[in-house]
Amino acid sequence: MSRTPFVPAELLSKLWRAVIEFDMLQAGDRILIGLSGGKDSMFLTAALAEIQKYAPVPFDLACYTVDAMFSPAFPKAELEAFCGYYGLKHYSEKVDVNSAWQNKGNTPCFTCAYFRRAATNRTALETKWPWPTTTMMP
């Protein structure tokens, strides 16, 4: 990574407030974040990792990425380094969405969302992470 991840204090305090006000974390919670590499999922990962350091209740956090194989330049190493910075486990899987789409009559966006969701849910079950969390539900 070229820069050290940073969560602005103002945004972190708003997230803390929501977590406390709505009682969003319980001791022993296991959260699997859908990490796409976009700004939303990167922020959510960084912010929850910062909260995890100081939370009054212990909870587990990990990330999962689906490489839809649209580009050979998928940033898997960068995502792993980002997770490594926070000491988070990073799971990833390749899913050939383009091949699946060619054989169906749906739009590529529908096919991609369907296969990403299926892969994420399957991995969550296989690795015992019960609640996959994404920043955008397709």
What does this protein look like?
- With 138 residues, the chain is an alpha/beta fold.
- 46% of the residues lie in helices and 16% in strands.
- The protein contains five helices and four strands, in the order H-E-H-E-H-E-H-H-E.
- It has a four-stranded parallel beta sheet with strand order 3-2-1-4, sandwiched between helices.
- The protein is globular, with a radius of gyration of 16 Å.
- The mean pLDDT is 85.
What share of residues are in beta strands?
A: 15-25%
Count of DSSP helices?
Answer: 5
- Please state the CA-atom Rg, rounded to the nearest Å: 16 Å
Q: Ranges with pLDDT <50 over ≥5 residues?
A: none
Which strand order does the major sheet show?
3-2-1-4
Shape call: globular
Helix content: 40-55%
Query: Structural class from helices and strands?
Result: alpha/beta
The count of strands amounts to 4
Describe the sheet with the most strands.
Answer: 4 strands, parallel
Distance between the termini: 28 Å
Order of helices and strands: HEHEHEHHE
Mean of all residue-level pLDDT scores? 85
List the helices and strands and how they pair.
Blueprint: H1 9-21, E1 30-34, H2 39-54, E2 60-67, H3 76-85, E3 89-94, H4 97-102, H5 108-126, E4 131-133
Parallel strand pairs: 1-2, 1-4, 2-3
